[in-house]
Recover the amino acids of this structure.
């Protein structure tokens, strides 16, 4: 299955390592350092046309890429669950 992340960018669901809220996850120094290193190495792709709300870490232990998205984590999770299971129910 695939997940649309913004700006017509999609990725395979199997390639997703994690979906993170920008505001809450960047409180941690470790996360900020990780994102800075990823940006310096060219591993960050901004697919956000507006204020970013989330980032999606894709890849494997040998190579990863970070996608910055304007789509909220809850919406991304709903999309990925819906696509994989055919329906979505909160609760």
């Amino acid at each position: 299955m695939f997940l649309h992340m913004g700006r017509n960018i999609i990725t395979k669901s199997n390639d997703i390592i994690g979906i993170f809220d920008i505001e809450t996850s960047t409180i941690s120094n470790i996360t900020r350092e990780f994102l800075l290193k990823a940006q310096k190495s060219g591993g960050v792709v901004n697919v956000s046309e507006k204020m970013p709300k989330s980032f999606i870490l894709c890849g494997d232990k040998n190579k990863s890429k970070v996608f910055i998205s304007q789509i909220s984590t809850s919406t991304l999770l709903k999309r990925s669950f819906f696509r994989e299971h055919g329906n979505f129910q909160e609760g």
